[in-house]
Design brief:
Structural class of chain B: alpha+beta
Strand content of chain B: 35-45%
Mean pLDDT of chain A: 76
Mean pLDDT of chain B: 89
Distance between the termini of chain A: 147 Å
Radius of gyration of chain B: 23 Å
Helix content of chain B: 10-25%
Distance between the termini of chain B: 24 Å
Low-confidence stretches of chain B: 1-24
CATH class of the largest domain in chain B: Mainly Beta
Order of helices and strands of chain A: HHHHHHHH
CATH class of the domain at 148-272 in chain A: Mainly Alpha
Shape of chain B: globular
Largest interface: A-B, 42 and 58 residues
Shape of chain A: rod-shaped
Helix content of chain A: over 70%
Number of strands of chain B: 30
CATH topology of the largest domain in chain B: Neuraminidase
Number of helices of chain A: 8
CATH architecture of the domain at 148-272 in chain A: Alpha Horseshoe
Radius of gyration of chain A: 62 Å
CATH architecture of the largest domain in chain B: 6 Propeller
Number of strands of chain A: 0
Oligomer: heterodimer
Structural class of chain A: mainly alpha
Largest sheet of chain B: 6 strands, mixed
CATH superfamily of the domain at 148-272 in chain A: Tetratricopeptide repeat domain
Number of domains of chain B: 2
Largest sheet of chain A: none
Low-confidence stretches of chain A: 134-140, 280-288
Number of helices of chain B: 5
Chain lengths: 290, 430
């Protein structure tokens, strides 16, 4: 577009503006009146709303006042309740104070105990491991219930190893469980022998006597009676001991105990001793009886 | 066994008829007894694993002591039979001298796989410190300051480890008396430090140490007749028997009493018990034309005595009360038996037996069940003697062509020679 064309357009537009300006002022006046009317209407509406709101606020105020009264009543009631609770609480406060202290102390002790338990558990686990790992020394003989031979072997093993109380218990169990067995008198003998070794003389004498009663011709009867006679001599019953030694020589002349009884009589009462017959060679014992 | 005495007994035993009584099934008895002993002696694959790292030097000039210490400690713990020793070739290359350098995972994991590790340092020629750790739980079990010469220190530390792992006293400081060149000698339990105990200039036989090692009884010809002589541990003569027959095979009880066999004044060979000085001899057996020899106390109870008698035909093992009562056979298996030895814990009797076939070996018998286990197989083996812990047996063997003292575990394993210049009749004590 050139420069002359721009000038032409400018003058056309200026003409048009001057020509239409009165029409425009008349239109503006009409619009202003309509606007004022609308504003007056709106003002009336606002006055109505304010009046309604005032009425609503009044209602709410009345409601609030009522609620406040109720609330105050509630607060009073709560206050009474709290006071009652405090009174109740104060009445038990002494005891509860002690109880709380006790519970605290118990809690501390429980904690300490738990720690100890944990340490003990650790030590127990270590001990258990050690026990499982270490090579064991001679173990106790396993006993199958009802197996007389195993029970006797275990009892005699314990006697040989110096476990006397255990051995007595096992020998007694043997005598009670297998009273008619071939080794019952042997078990009875070892009960007496352990007691004799422990210097329990009256008890040992009674147990020795049972041996000869159980099996007068058994392989332990002569030695049991000899030991019983020894106890009689040791406890001051010399006359009874002499009679017993004489009886052994008479009843079991081929036994080694007859020789030993003779030696005892030589010391206790040589006057009663008849020249003992020469001892024939003893036949060998073929059976293995502990 | 002394040659003259062997001839004496042999003449009497030559016509003996084997008793032929076999109260136990031999194979079943051996298996059962071997199983039981398997719980006493640790065998490969059973029991804990112990690694014993070489001690490290902490001072100059201790190389010789260090080598002796490490060798002795290893041998002590290997012979103790309380744990499997993990081989040293498997150990970590890092030198382990003190707890600060111990890395648990190196010892717990492959290839060592140890439960326990022993290690330490030699601080000087006569000073060392040792440690034992449970490497699985990462706990120190033992810390020990040791003093003495290298072998003493190793023995001390080995015994401390044994005590800690088993609760029982070890044997590393025990000693063995034996006969060499007609005199009584004594050596450490591993054969070292042998020295003469007697210089009688006569013939000494059958030494017997008391269980506490404080008394020595032996047979001496110094009076012209073989009699029992008793000496204290410092060599002083306490007493002796004064018989004119053959007196032999003494055994000392825990309370010092002596049991022995004697033909006294030329009569039959019977058993006697005397006071510790040889006085107050009391006859236990009374037999005719019978030999009763080799009495051995039950050292646990001192109430019973095992011995050899041929009253049943052939020499077998019998028992008798220490007061002479309750005599009875214990083992009647036939063949010829000799030199019974009662274990210190009272449970077993070791003895010499030819098994009826003429080859003498060491056997083990369970007192209560009568089950028997054969322990030796090579050469001729005689005169067993128990270690104080009841887990080992010393004996004499001619398997090398000469009588020497040997020792082994009671299951027959770990047989090792203790003497190199001859030895007979061992007696092992604390």
């Amino acid at each position: 577009m050139n420069r002359n064309s721009i000038h032409h357009l400018f003058f056309v537009l200026l003409f048009l503006a001057i020509a239409f300006s009165p029409m425009r002022a008349a239109a503006q006046s009409r619009e202003q009146r309509e606007k004022i009317d609308r504003m007056a209407s709106q003002l009336e509406e606002l006055k109505t709303e304010v009046m309604l709101l005032q009425r609503h606020v009044q209602t709410m105020q009345e409601t609030f006042n009522k609620s406040t009264g109720e609330l105050n009543t509630l607060i009073v009631q709560m206050s009474d309740n709290v006071s009652a609770m405090r009174r109740a609480q104060s009445s038990v406060s002494t005891n509860s104070g002690e109880t709380v202290t006790s519970i605290t102390a118990m809690g501390e002790r429980l904690t300490a105990t738990n720690q100890r338990m944990e340490r003990l558990s650790e030590q127990f686990a270590q001990l258990k491991k050690l026990i499982e790992d270490i090579p064991r020394m001679p173990t106790f003989t396993q006993i199958t219930p009802g197996n007389a031979e195993q029970l006797f072997a275990a009892a005699y093993s314990d006697y040989s190893r110096g476990n006397y109380e255990l051995a007595i218990s096992e020998f007694k169990q043997y005598v009670e469980t297998f009273p008619g067995s071939e080794l019952a008198d042997n078990a009875q003998y070892w009960i007496a022998e352990i007691l004799y070794g422990q210097k329990k003389l009256p008890e040992a004498a009674a147990e020795y006597e049972k041996v000869a009663v159980m099996s007068p011709n058994g392989d332990k009867s002569s030695v049991a009676l000899y030991k019983r006679a020894l106890i009689l001599a040791e406890t001051g019953n010399k006359d009874q001991a002499v009679v017993q030694f004489q009886s052994i020589i008479k009843v079991y002349p081929k036994s080694n105990e007859a020789n030993l009884a003779t030696q005892q009589l030589q010391q206790l009462a040589p006057e009663v001793l008849i020249q003992p017959a020469a001892q024939p060679e003893r036949p060998p014992r073929k059976t293995r009886k502990p | 066994m002394n040659k003259a005495f062997s001839i004496l007994c042999g003449l009497i035993f030559i016509c003996a008829v084997p008793a032929g009584v076999a109260p136990v099934s031999a194979q079943q008895g051996q298996d059962d007894l071997r199983r039981q002993i398997g719980t006493i002696i640790v065998t490969p694959g059973s029991g804990p694993s112990l690694a014993v790292a070489d001690f490290q030097p902490r001072a100059s000039g201790v190389d010789a002591a260090l080598a002796t210490f490490n060798d002795t400690l290893w041998n002590d713990l290997k012979f103790a039979g309380i744990a499997n020793l993990a081989g040293k070739s498997l150990y970590p290359k890092t030198r382990l001298a003190d707890p600060a350098t111990l890395r648990y995972d190196e010892w717990v994991n492959d290839p060592v796989k140890a439960d326990y590790v022993a290690f330490g340092s030699v601080l000087g020629a006569k000073e060392a410190e040792g440690y034992l750790y449970d490497v699985k739980t990462q706990q120190q079990l033992l810390t020990s300051r040791l003093s003495g010469d290298a072998r003493d220190m190793a023995h001390q530390f080995a015994d401390q480890i044994v005590k800690l792992l088993t609760g029982q006293d070890g044997i590393a400081t025990s000693k063995v008396a034996y006969i060499q060149n007609r005199e009584v000698s004594v050596m450490d339990y591993d054969g070292y430090d042998a020295r003469a105990l007697t210089r009688d200039g006569s013939i000494a036989l059958f030494p017997s140490l008391s269980p506490d090692g404080k008394w020595l009884a032996y047979v001496s010809y110094r009076s012209g007749y073989p009699n029992i002589v008793v000496r204290s541990e410092d060599g002083l003569i306490i007493g002796s028997t004064q018989f004119k027959g053959t007196t032999t095979s003494p055994s000392v009880a825990p309370d010092g009493r002596i049991a022995f066999a004697s033909s006294k004044d030329g009569g039959s060979m019977d058993l006697y018990v005397a006071s510790s000085d040889g006085s107050n001899a009391r006859r236990l057996t009374r037999t005719r034309n019978t030999v009763n020899i080799s009495p051995r106390w039950n050292p646990k109870t001192a109430r019973e005595i095992a011995f050899i008698s041929d009253r049943g035909g052939s020499p077998q093992v019998y028992l008798i009360g220490a007061d002479g009562t309750n005599e009875r056979p214990l083992l009647t298996l036939g063949g010829q038996m000799d030199s019974p030895a009662w274990s210190p814990d009272g449970r077993f009797i070791a003895f010499t037996w030819d098994g009826g076939g003429g080859a003498f070996n060491i056997y083990l018998a369970d007192i209560a069940s009568g089950q028997v286990l054969k322990l030796t197989r090579e050469g001729r083996n005689e005169n067993p003697s128990w270690s104080p812990d009841s887990r080992h047996i010393a004996f004499q063997s001619n398997r090398t062509g000469r009588w020497e003292i040997w020792a082994m575990h009671i299951d027959g394993s770990e047989q090792r020679r203790l003497t190199r210049t001859g030895g007979r009749s061992p007696s092992w004590s604390k």
